[in-house]
Amino acid sequence: MLYIVILFLFAAITLYFLLGGADFGAGIIELFTSTDNKHRTRKIMYQAIGPIWEANHMWLIITVVILFVGFPVIYSEMCIYLHIPLLIMLLGVIARGTAFSFRNYDAVKDEKTQAFYTQIFVYSSFVTPLFLGIIAGSALSGQINPKATDFAHAYIFSWLNWFSVAVGFFTVALCGFLAAIYIVGETDDVDEIKRYIRKAKIMNIVAVICGALVFLASGYEKVHLANWIFGNPVSLVAVIAATISLGVLYLIISHKRNRQWIRLLAAFQVCMILISVGFSRFPRFVIFKDGSSMSLLTEHANDNSIDDLGIGLLVGSLFILPALGYLYYAFKKKDR
C-alpha cells in the first residue's frame, strides 16, 4: 500500500505541474504580452482556464494531504526549513485566485480596480511557480543545512541560493511554454494560432537558457547535477526522449498539424524532464547539506495510517477522476 500512496503522490505533483503550471503560465504569457495584444490574450486565456482553474489546485491539495498524513516527518521538516518560500508560494496562489475572480466576475467593472486586479494576477502568476521551483530545487539538491546555528543559514540560505533560484526561473519558463502550447488549441483564428506558436517557441528558448543557468549554478553551488541527471540509464533515456519530443513538436508546429498532438508532446516533454530529475533521487524526498536525507520508504507514518490513506486515495479517485473528466468535457463542449 505504501507504493500506491507514493504513486499517488508523484501523480499529483506531475498533474499539478502540467495543469496548474499551465494556469500559472497563462498569467506569465499575459505579463510579457504587448499592450496592443493584452486584451485579446486575456480573453483567450479566460476562455481556456476560466471554467477549470480552481479545479487544478486539487492536485496541490492532494499532495499536501498525502505528505501530511502519510509522511508527517518529511512534511514537518520541509515546513520548518522552507517555511518562507512555502508561505510566499501559498500567498501567490491565494492572491492569484482572488485577483482572477474579481477581474472576471466582479459586478462593477471599474477601470482602475480592473488594472489593479490584473497586476496582482500576472505578477502572482510569475511569483508562485518561481517559488515552487525554488522549493523543489532546495529539497532535492542538498541545500538545507540541519546543522546551521543561525537563522539566516537555516531558513534563508537553504533556499536563497543560485541553484534553487535558477531552478525557479526554469520552472517559470516551463509553465509559460505549457500555457502557450495549450492555448494553441483554444482558438481557430489563424493569426492567433501563429502568435501563440511564436510565444511557445520563445518560451522554449527561455527554458533552454534557464536550464543552462541551472547547470552553471550547480557548478557554483557544488551540486553534481550532471551526474544526478546523466548518471543513470533511466534519467538519460528520459533526457533523450524529451529532446526527441521537442524536435517532433517543432516539426508538427511547422506543418500546422493536429493541435492535440502538440499538447500531448509538450506534456510528454515536461514529464520526461521531471523523470530525469526525480528518478535518481528516489526514494529520497529531502536531501540535506551534510549528505543525510529523508526517504519516502522509511520516513512514513505507521502501517495502519498508510493503509487507510491508500484506500482513501483509491476509493476517492473512483469518484474524483470521472467527475473531473466530465468537467473538462462539459466546458469544452460548451465552448464549441
From TrEMBL:
It holds the Pfam family Cyt_bd_oxida_II. GO terms for biological process: aerobic electron transport chain. The keyword Transport does not apply. It is found in: Cell membrane. The keyword Transmembrane applies. InterPro entries: Cyt-d_oxidase_su2. The chain crosses the membrane at residues 6-32, 53-74, 80-99, 120-140, 160-182, 202-220, 226-252, 264-282, 309-331. It is a multi-pass membrane protein. Keywords: Cell membrane, Membrane, Transmembrane, Transmembrane helix. One of its GO terms (cellular component) is plasma membrane. GO terms for molecular function: electron transfer activity; oxidoreductase activity, acting on diphenols and related substances as donors, oxygen as acceptor. Belongs to the cytochrome ubiquinol oxidase subunit 2 family. This is Cytochrome d ubiquinol oxidase subunit II.
